[in-house]
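[recover] target loaded
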């Protein structure tokens, strides 16, 4: 495969992650949770609770929904977007509250001769996380 073909094929993969952050509102007591523990990974220095919740008290700050292509580039952008959302909210961690397929999107790769080839369907992935800060 020619280099130009590879670059053209990758172009539809370089779109940006869609990010929607919503702040929790309410009385402080209603937003404080005593977590029970679970399974976490660390991403960019932040705890990401994949299953369960932090085994300590924490404050819910908001929810971020991230949607991107379900491929290696989209996953990298989604991870970077999650770290940026935690930083922007002055959070300590994120708790997974939902993952799922986000449908499909069409791409139009262009060959090295400048001809648009047939459309290609790319899968999308949606993820929702609670952004939290540890209280103790």
């Amino acid at each position: 495969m020619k280099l130009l073909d590879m670059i053209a094929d990758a172009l539809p993969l370089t779109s940006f992650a869609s990010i929607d952050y919503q702040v929790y509102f309410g009385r402080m007591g209603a937003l404080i949770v005593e977590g029970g523990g679970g399974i976490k990974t660390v991403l960019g220095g932040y705890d990401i609770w994949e299953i369960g919740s932090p085994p300590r008290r924490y404050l819910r700050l908001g929810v971020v929904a991230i949607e991107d292509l379900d491929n290696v580039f989209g996953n990298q952008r989604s991870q970077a977007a999650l770290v940026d959302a935690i930083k922007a909210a002055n959070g300590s961690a994120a708790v997974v509250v939902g993952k799922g397929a986000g449908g499909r999107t069409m791409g139009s790769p262009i060959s090295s001769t400048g001809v648009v080839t047939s459309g290609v369907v790319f899968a999308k992935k949606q993820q929702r996380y609670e952004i939290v800060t540890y209280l103790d």
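[recover] notes: The chain has three helices and seven strands.
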